[in-house]
Amino acid sequence: MPRHRVNEPNRRFHDRVAAKYDKIYDDPFWEFHDRITWNHLKPFLPRDATAAVMDLGCGTGKWGLKLLKGGYPTTFTDLSAKMLDEVQKKLDVWKEQPDLAGKVAKATVQEADAVDLRAFPESHFSLVTAMGDVVSICSDPGRCLSEVHRLLAPGGIFVFTVDNHLAAIDHFIAAGNLEALAAFVKSGKTEWLTKNVAEQFDVHMFTPGQIDSLVRAKGFEVVSRIGKMIIPARQNKKLFETERALEVLIDLETRLQSEPTAAARASHLQLAVRKAT
Q1: Domain containing 37 — which CATH number?
Q2: Of 4, 85, 217, 270, which residue is least crowded by CB atoms under 10 Å?
Q3: What is the residue range of 19's domain?
């Protein structure tokens, strides 16, 4: 499959960080984050354990491996070949474990760009996930949604995250650059924060209303949308030091998610959308 030159900075960055990616996200905050993510995703798992699922922009395979462990035939795909190497290493470890070895045969690992999924069959998947803001950081969010729509079976579910436009305003305020703030508010577009110019790529941010409108325009019905993380616990690790801190924070975050306007202060938005039957 031909590579899209516009996506090379994205690929370069993720190739470079692949080997240390899991360590970057190994702390109590990310455990909190991942529990919230899974709690929202879990109700949309296919009831049929033979249903095909895809982890799009899978990175090192965190969510795809959970799906595979649940028995689903799982396709892991990412723009970065180095990220897929990390997935394959984990699958190789699974082969040595009697309780997991049989599930490895249900895994497919294949490089692909989120805006070009021609390599995969139409109307084949019951569930596609795209965590890590794949829709935000790909070169064309609308095209990505169209590609996923083509891959999903009628009634299939796409669960994904995007960066929240409203939450990013504080970054531009802190920088004190009025021109940059105005450009961002008007476009919802910024650049990946990395010092290496060769690794800088566009990031598309969305308000709740904007992402709802885009998915509907691409033929999806919005089933559920939450803001996360509404509680900015990453800013103070002391919150995790008390007994049962994780469970308390999960309960509070979940309570806040029931208030639709709370999404305005969340760093990300997570949606479950359905392809019409």
Answers
A1: 3.40.50.150
A2: 217
A3: 5-275
